[in-house]
Specification:
Elements lengths: L3 H5 L4 H5 L4 H11 L3 H7 L5 H12 L7 E5 L5 H9 L4 E6 L2 H7 L11 E6 L13 E10 L7 H6 L3 E12 H6 L2 H10 L7 E6 L11 E8 L3
Parallel strand pairs: 1-2, 1-4, 2-3, 4-5
Antiparallel strand pairs: 5-7, 6-7
Helix pairs in contact: 5-6
Length: about 220
């Protein structure tokens, strides 16, 4: 039987990294959603969402910055940064957790409009109903990591972006190696489904975080066909 201390222990990154099943994800984020921004993002100086949004705004052509899919949007941290950088953007948030999507719904732009045009509950490891050629670009931060999505999901996501559209996807650097992202990306490139991927390294956390020094690789490529 769990002790009182175990029952009241705060949720942290190790809990997220240990997830295995879809139900595991739903249970954890149902409990974490209400205070995720405060107990994880703020306390750990989680800077990956801002860094990836900044990179997106720099590398994605202006004509491909309108309809954007935010994969694993969580509480809306990426979308909130991106909406300020690209005020004309229309962002759809996609996540497995309805409770995290409820938090994303509370995020607003400086003009008081909602950050997200649509919020979509979807399990990307199963069949999902996102129409092909729906988006000009796709962004993701914090979802391709331990206990979450692997490289095989990238192949499933390519059709939702229009030909010529851009992908900016953050991947935990250890996860990148252990799950073979490099070989999957190379295969997609050889098959001419994507352009040659660019890899950018960013710090996931700020200097005041106990996790400072953790690196994310940000994958940048375009859909070719």
């Amino acid at each position: 039987m769990a002790t009182d201390d175990q029952q009241s222990a705060p949720i942290d990154r190790s809990d997220a990294y240990a997830l295995v099943t879809t139900d595991d994800h739903k249970r954890l984020y149902a409990k974490w959603a209400d205070n995720y921004d405060e107990t994880f993002a703020a306390q750990n100086e989680y800077r990956s969402p801002k860094a990836i949004a900044d990179l997106f705004a720099q590398v994605v052509p202006a004509q491909a910055q309108t309809a954007i899919a935010d994969i694993g949007c969580g509480t809306g941290l990426v979308g909130q940064y991106l909406a300020e950088l690209l005020p004309e953007s229309k962002i759809d948030g996609i996540d497995i957790s309805i409770q995290m999507l409820d938090q994303a719904r509370t995020k607003f732009r400086s003009n008081k409009s909602a950050v997200y045009r649509n919020l979509i509950e979807a399990d990307l490891t199963a069949d999902f109903a996102i129409e092909h050629d729906s988006y000009d670009a796709l962004i993701s931060a914090g979802t391709f990591t331990h206990g979450h999505l692997g490289p095989e999901i990238i192949s499933k996501l390519i059709p939702v972006v229009r030909i010529g559209g851009s992908f900016v996807i953050g991947v935990n650097s250890q996860h990148f190696v252990s799950r073979g992202f490099d070989s999957v990306l190379s295969e997609l490139w050889r098959d001419e489904l994507i352009s040659a991927p660019e890899l950018h390294d960013i710090q996931t956390y700020g200097e005041g975080s106990k996790h400072f020094g953790d690196i994310a690789k940000v994958l940048v490529f375009k859909r070719e066909k």
